[in-house]
Every structure is written in structure tokens, then in C-alpha cells.
Write a structure and sequence with these properties.
The complex is a heterodimer. Chain A is of the alpha/beta class. Chain A is built from five helices and five strands, in the order H-E-H-E-H-H-E-H-E-E. Chain A has a single domain, classed as 3-Layer(aba) Sandwich (D-Maltodextrin-Binding Protein, domain 2). Chain A has helices spanning 6-17, 36-43, 66-76, 80-91, 105-114, and strands at residues 22-26, 57-61, 100-102, 118-123, 132-136. The longest helix of chain A is centred in the N-terminal third of the chain and has 12 residues, at 6-17. Chain B has four helices and 17 strands. In chain B, 37% of the residues are buried.
Chain lengths: 137, 394
């Protein structure tokens, strides 16, 4: 059971990840770009391809992952419960399913580097040559 | 309490603080299972329920509590099958198929659904029972007052964007067989050829919709049928009594709404009209506005709401009857008139990433009430209701 400890957790999160950067990654062969708005639409299920027309399927890090919270905040502008409400509307009306959850930066990289149609996001510190940086926040 | 234990570790490494809630959906070989539940307890200030409130002066958990499971089977190549089974306290927790449909994606933008679906009248109709996805304990009674919510037929969903606005059209065609007038005179009836469109538009913090539906309504309400027969006995022609009976008359629904979610300020407003031509019913119009403010630091969202509904008098239908019967017929129309308002205040607490606790107070009061039984113009009714809800999704 998770009880939020807003003030304490907020302060600690800030000190922990205030300096971290999130990198959105794609397969090295992908030759396309994406703005924050484009990525927001893709991760909210409103768009299914990059602006250049390349089809992509987004991957999420698991709930509770600090990089995911950073991404939600910077790119989607929503917190976890707002996102949960947003996806509930789509799930229970058969209009969509949220991106699949993946356990770690390493797993995101492994999936993205093996599949030209997947994109994900990781902590900037985990970035390496197996994947291509699409955007940084 | 995992979070609290983890705090001890935080000093050194940046451990995920928000804890690891279980994955929200169960998935196995193309099957996804999702669910939601609401436990709602409430109590009214008066032993008489005010119109469609669900509570007397006894504290009760049953009227609005519900549990639902949804199973979606992805059959590949854009085809999927979805069922949603719900057990409602109001229905003694008997499980019923609320939705059951096949869905086929023609393209990324266009999906056809066939089966039992929700009629998307209002902003919250599509997820009427998913309390978690709504800011309040329940949508405003003054507006969300149509007895039925599902239909059997087809729904074509189409998404497109225009000037960075996202549009979402839902075109529906089908039929409804259900019990109508459930609170006053339960009657099996049907709506034939329900056609309509709901068009939504959204961009960042702004959203809006417009909806229009038209149908043929058949509801052989016993008291009304009897009254019409009696009038014919007194010499009224069937062409006139047909203007009272609900016997294949055109029903229309028109609705608009808008929502804002900007800088943690939430505002929702909706307006709708419902009319069944040539029947002993009155055209009614209703609207509400709600405003809330999300205090993120403590995950609490207080909100207030104002709602109102009223109907238009009908003075023309009586003229189709022989003169001696006109006062009776006019009296029957006048007795349908009502106008009431509601004021509400509540608070939502997102105490868990999959659950919200809500506390809400409503005060409903008559402005005009000429309907038999429930108050009189000289003695309008009112009722206050207090409710507490826990909404979860999983």
C-alpha cells in the first residue's frame, strides 16, 4: 500500500532528481525529430507516428520510477493521478490502452535498440550508442 | 507502507520514492483485464428522497456502490473484443454486461465498434460509472438524468487533428430496450433508430464537445395509456390522444460542454436539452458549472458546483382536444412542470495512485414543482445529501 508523504517526498524528489535529465530515445536507424508536443501526443495515445510519418509505439518506465515522474512532469505536464484518470477514460471506453510499462532504463534500451518502431525515455546518464537521442528535457 | 520504509534509504541513492504500486492492468497473451470500483456511502437530510437523489435519512452504502471488471482480448490485425461486467449495489450487486462489443481498427484514426455500447450524451457518459475519472462523487443529478445509458448497435470513432486541436468524433446508430421512468412508473420501452454524433475537441488545457441525437420513442406508460383511453371514451379523437402517448414520437437530445484544466484550476460546464415531441412530456433544459483547484502538494482538490434544470410549459397540445376536455389536458401538462437547483461542495483526496477519497455535500431545492406528490408550489421540497466515496481503478 502506498501512502503519499507529500511534503517530505516532494522535497526529497526535488533534491534527488532536480538535476536529472530525461532523454527520449529511438532506434539508431530512425531519421526523424520530435518536439515536446509531438512526444506528448504520442505518449498520450493521440498520435501513432513521429512528425515525419515514422510509426512508433511508446514505452513507459514503471510507476514510481523517478525518471518517469520527471518525464510526466516535463513532457506531459500531468501528475500520476491525472494520468491515471486520463487513461481510465480511454481504457473503460475501449478507446485506448496506456503505453506498456518497462522495468528499467536497460530494458527500455534493449527493446528500443532491437525495434525500429519503439520509442522510450531514460535517464540521460543511461544513454549510450545502442540508441539514438530524439529529444532531451 | 513500503514508502515509509524506503525513506530510510534515500540519503545516499536516489531511490524511487513514490513506491511501486502494482501494475495497473493484468495482461496475458493478448488479454488485458482492468477494473474499477466505487464504494459510496451517503445520507440525506430528509426521509423523503428529493427527486433522483438516492438517499433517505438512513446512512446507506448500497445505492451508488459498484464493482466492474473489463476484459479486452486483442485478436490481432486491429480486431479486439471487450466486455465490461458490472455489479451495482442499486441492482443488489447482480453482475450485468454493461458493455460487450467487437472493435475493428480500419486505420490508426478510424475504429468501428459493434455491440452493446454507451450512448455518449454527456461529457462523463462514456465513463459514467468510473468514479475515479470524475472530479466529483457523481455527475450532477440535474443533468445526468436520462434513465438509460447503453444501446445496442454501431459506433464509428474517428480522430483527426486540425491546427493542433485534436478532434474525436463518435457517430452512433442503434436501438435501446430498457426500463424507463424507473423512479416513478417503471415501464419497458424502446428507442428505435437512435442516430447521433458526439464531437469532442481538445488542446492542452482546453476541451469541449457538442452532441446531437435523434430517435423514435416508444414507452407505453400504463397511467398515460389509461388516461388517453379515458379521454377517447369522452370523445377525444385518437389523433389527439396520440399527442399524449409515447408511441413512436421523435425524441431529440442536444448537448454542449467545455472543460478547462489550467494551472491546477479545473472548470467544467455543460448544457443540454431533451425533448420528445407530441407526448405528455415537457421539453427540459439543464446546465451546471463546477470549479475546483488542485493543491498538488497535498493531493487534495476542493470543488464547488451549481446545477439547475427546468422545463418549458406546453399550452398548444390541449387545443387539439374537444373544448370540454381542454382543461383536463392542460392540467396534465401543467402538472409536469418543475424547476430545481443544486449547490454542492466537495473535496477529492488522491491518497493513492490508484484510488481517490471524496467527500461531498449537496443541497437540492425546488424553485417550481407542480408535479403531483413531490412538493407543491406553496411547499417546495429540498434535501441535503452528504456522501463519502472511495474510487479505485486497477
Amino acid at each position: 500500500m502506498k501512502i503519499k508523504l507529500p511534503l517530505l517526498a516532494g522535497a526529497l524528489l526535488y533534491s534527488c532528481i532536480g538535476v536529472a535529465e530525461v532523454v527520449v530515445i529511438a532506434h539508431p536507424s530512425v531519421n526523424d525529430t520530435a518536439s515536446q508536443d509531438d512526444l506528448s501526443r504520442i505518449f498520450l495515445g493521440k498520435a501513432k507516428s513521429l512528425p515525419g510519418g515514422h510509426k512508433v509505439m511508446p514505452l513507459n518506465l514503471e510507476e514510481g520510477n523517478a525518471t518517469r515522474e520527471e518525464f510526466n512532469d516535463k513532457v506531459l505536464g500531468k501528475n500520476d493521478s491525472q494520468l491515471k484518470s486520463y487513461w481510465s477514460k480511454l481504457i473503460f471506453t475501449g478507446k485506448g490502452q496506456p503505453p506498456k510499462d518497462v522495468g528499467s532504463d536497460a530494458e527500455v534500451k534493449a527493446l528500443v535498440s532491437a525495434n525500429p518502431n519503439m520509442i522510450g525515455y531514460i535517464d540521460a546518464a543511461s544513454l549510450d550508442a545502442t540508441v539514438k537521442e530524439l529529444a532531451r528535457f | 507502507m513500503r514508502t515509509i520504509r524506503k525513506l530510510g534509504l534515500v540519503g545516499g541513492a536516489c531511490v524511487a520514492l513514490s513506491a511501486t504500486a502494482p501494475a495497473s492492468a493484468f495482461e496475458y497473451e493478448g488479454l488485458s483485464i482492468n477494473g474499477f470500483a466505487s464504494i459510496v456511502g451517503g445520507m440525506g437530510s430528509d426521509e423523503n428522497m428529493f427527486r433522483s437523489t438516492s438517499y433517505t435519512d438512513n446512512f446507506e452504502f448500497k445505492p451508488e456502490s459498484k464493482f466492474a471488471l473489463q476484459v479486452t482480448a486483442d485478436l490481432g490485425s486491429g480486431l479486439s473484443a471487450t466486455t465490461q461486467i458490472m455489479a451495482k449495489g442499486a441492482n443488489n450487486f447482480n453482475a450485468e454486461f454493461e458493455w460487450a462489443y467487437l472493435s475493428y481498427d480500419f486505420t490508426d484514426e478510424t475504429t468501428l465498434r459493434a455491440g452493446r455500447l454507451r450512448v455518449p450524451f454527456y461529457k462523463y457518459s462514456d465513463y459514467l460509472d468510473v468514479g475515479y475519472a470524475q472530479p466529483f462523487v457523481r455527475p450532477p443529478l440535474a443533468m445526468y438524468n436520462l434513465d438509460f445509458s447503453t444501446f445496442d448497435g454501431l459506433s464509428l470513432l474517428h480522430n483527426f487533428s486540425l491546427a493542433s486541436f485534436d478532434f474525436n468524433a463518435n457517430i452512433t446508430a442503434g436501438n435501446v430496450s430498457d426500463e424507463f421512468f424507473t423512479t416513478t412508473e417503471p415501464t419497458e420501452g424502446k428507442l428505435e433508430s437512435v442516430y447521433g454524433i458526439n464531437l469532442q475537441v481538445s488542446r492542452d488545457w482546453f476541451s469541449a464537445y457538442a452532441a446531437y441525437y435523434s430517435t423514435k420513442v416508444y414507452i407505453p406508460r400504463a397511467s398515460l395509456e389509461q388516461a388517453a383511453d379515458n379521454l377517447e371514451g369522452f370523445g377525444a379523437p385518437p389523433s389527439a390522444t396520440s399527442l399524449l402517448r409515447i408511441d413512436g414520437d421523435t425524441g431529440t437530445f442536444l448537448g454542449f460542454g467545455m472543460g478547462i484544466d489550467y494551472a491546477d484550476i479545473i472548470v467544467n460546464a455543460e448544457y443540454s436539452t431533451v425533448e420528445i415531441e407530441d407526448t405528455l412530456t415537457l421539453k427540459n433544459a439543464q446546465w451546471y458549472v463546477m470549479a475546483g483547484y488542485r493543491i498538488n502538494s497535498i493531493s487534495i482538490t476542493p470543488y464547488v458546483m451549481y446545477e439547475t434544470t427546468e422545463n418549458d410549459p406546453n399550452t398548444s397540445t390541449a387545443k387539439a382536444f374537444p373544448a370540454p376536455l381542454q382543461p383536463t389536458v392542460q392540467g396534465a401538462f401543467d402538472a409536469q412542470q418543475f424547476e430545481f437547483k443544486g449547490l454542492s461542495a466537495g473535496v477529492r483526496y488522491d491518497f493513492h495512485s490508484n484510488a481517490a477519497l471524496k467527500l461531498e455535500y449537496n443541497h437540492y431545492y425546488d424553485i417550481v414543482d407542480l408535479t403531483a406528490g413531490v412538493g407543491t408550489p406553496a411547499d417546495p421540497d429540498d434535501q441535503s445529501v452528504i456522501s463519502v466515496a472511495v474510487d479505485v481503478v486497477f
